[in-house]
Amino acid sequence: MKEAIAILTGGGPAPGMNTVVGSVAKTFLAKGYRVIGLHHGYSGLFNPNPRFEDLDFFKSDFIFNQGGSYLTMSRFKPTDADFENNFNLSFFTENNIKLLVTVGGDDTASTANRIAKFLEAKQYPIANIHVPKTIDNDLPLPAGSPTFGYQSAKEGGTVIGRAVYNDARTSANWFVVAAMGRSAGHLAFGIGSACHYPMIVIPEMFNKTEITVEKIVNLVVSAIIKRKLMGVEYGVAMISEGVFHALSDEEIAKSGVHFTYDDHGHPELGKVSKAHIFNEMLEAKLKALNIKVKSRPVEIGYEVRCQTPIAYDLVYCSVNPTFVLIPLPLAL
Fold it and tell me: What is the pLDDT of residues 279-307, one digit of tens each?
């Protein structure tokens, strides 16, 4: 039976995922391997009837420059009980899989490591290549390389951000924009700086001091007052969703937000509009100060995760040697 590799994608999407899958598939197809694409992330490996398909050259070539992920993704995180009771070892043995390629963030990487060790203990060792991705750009890669997807997401967010700034100038009002980033402010800063926003609030700027709702709102108010003194009646404030990760439980309670959490224990920030929350707080503060300013909220999040990758990520995800990490020293 021909030796095979399996590829899966985990976590949330990022521009360039299909480029990685297509590039890896083409590489191993050229070396004579069978390439299997597994749908639904890790949940497929803990399912007696996983959904998977062969990736040939034509399919790999077709998805290469597409947005989103052709392989359906999942945030499933297996428990120890799942490994003992539900792991589908026959998927590996019956398909003669010698390599598992995983595309995802830090949670996807840690699960890949657990799977490789589990299979080694079962006397079926495999190699594992993990390709780190996130539009948050919060993984420390060699030589200061960005995570793939970040540049494309920043470009897409900047398109939205420019339109918002034009609206603010046209209407002589303010906007509060919130951008994705989990605990990091890279995407918010990248978009905000490209659009020349007068105020950008990211968690890194507080330099280990406590982040409070009042501090965030006061920073935006200060920008509004400064612009007024300059005779400018409009503007946009960018706030990274990462500041929520740094807020204490007491401060989160003040914001009125009640988070749900995913399988990895992360608050599901995408379920609430951070821009709406901060905008309401800003309006209340401006009213208390008797400052007459109209403000509107805009959320930049899911719109940039599945967009078509720009040239930077198309090249980066196909030829850049720094985009792979091997968490377990097993070789083909």
Answer: 999 999 999 999 999 999 999 989 999 99
Length of the chain in terms of residues written: 332
Tokens of 23: 């590039």
DSSP reduced 3-state for 107:
helix
CATH number at residue 91: 3.40.50.450
Integer Cα distance of 208 and 136 in angstroms: 20
Taking the CB of residue 67, how many other CB atoms lie within 10 A of it?
A: 20
136 has catalytic annotation? yes
18 and 63 in contact (C-beta within 8 Å)? yes
Structure tokens at 77: 């995180």
Using DSSP's 3-state secondary structure scheme, residue 79 falls into coil
Total domain count, the chain = 2
Is 332 part of a structural domain of the chain?
no
Quickly count helices (H) and strands (E) in the chain: 12, 9
Local confidence band at 263 (pLDDT 50, 70, 90 cut-offs): low
Whether pLDDT at 323 is above 50: no
Q: 209 is written with which tokens? A: 């001091």
Q: Do residues 18 and 70 touch, judged by C-beta distance below 8 A?
A: yes
Q: Which domain does 101 fall in, by range?
A: 4-149+309-323
DSSP 8-state assignment for residue 146:
P
- 72 shares a domain with 156: no
> What is residue 140's predicted lDDT score, i.e. its pLDDT?
82
- Show the beta-strand stretches assigned E in 42-189: 52-54, 97-104, 127-132, 174-179
Is residue 328 situated within a structural domain?
no
Exactly one of 136, 167, 249, 263 is catalytic; name it.
136
| CB neighbourhood size of 228 (10 A) | 13
Pairing of strands 34-38, 4-9: parallel
Neighbours of 221 (CB within 10 A): 19
pTM: 0.88
Q: Find the helix packing angle between 213-229 and 274-288, rounded to 10°.
A: 60
Residue closest to 303 by CA, chosen among 101, 161, 206, 145:
161
